[in-house]
UniProtKB/TrEMBL annotation:
Residue window of the full protein shown: 138 to 209 of 1010
Location relative to the cell: Membrane
Protein name: HMA domain-containing protein
Domain HMA: 3-69
Family assignment from sequence similarity: Belongs to the cation transport ATPase (P-type) (TC 3.A.3) family. Type IB subfamily.
Protein's organism: Spirodela intermedia (Intermediate duckweed)
Length: 72
């Protein structure tokens, strides 16, 4: 099973931030795809909910020093 989650990610100010957050997300177990947009502060993540929860995704982003909120 694959879910698609939208996250609002705060604190990204340059393209390297985007690469950093994408890299973090893509390394998480259960994450199949992650795309982050600087202009909208949005991230879209496809993940297997049997391997990772949306809360874990939020925590991983916050651990990297950014703000994160699950949207839908
Ligand atoms: Mo850009 Mo982001 O110099 O944490 S990498 S501000």
């Amino acid at each position: 099973r694959t879910l698609t989650g939208q996250f609002r990610i705060g604190g990204m100010t340059c393209a390297a931030c985007v690469n950093s957050v994408e890299g973090i997300l893509r390394k998480l177990p259960g994450v199949k795809r992650a795309v982050v947009a600087l202009a909208t502060s949005l991230g879209e993540v496809e993940y297997d909910p049997s391997l990772i929860s949306k809360e874990d995704i939020v925590l991983a982003i916050e651990d990297a020093g950014f703000d994160a909120e699950f949207l839908q």
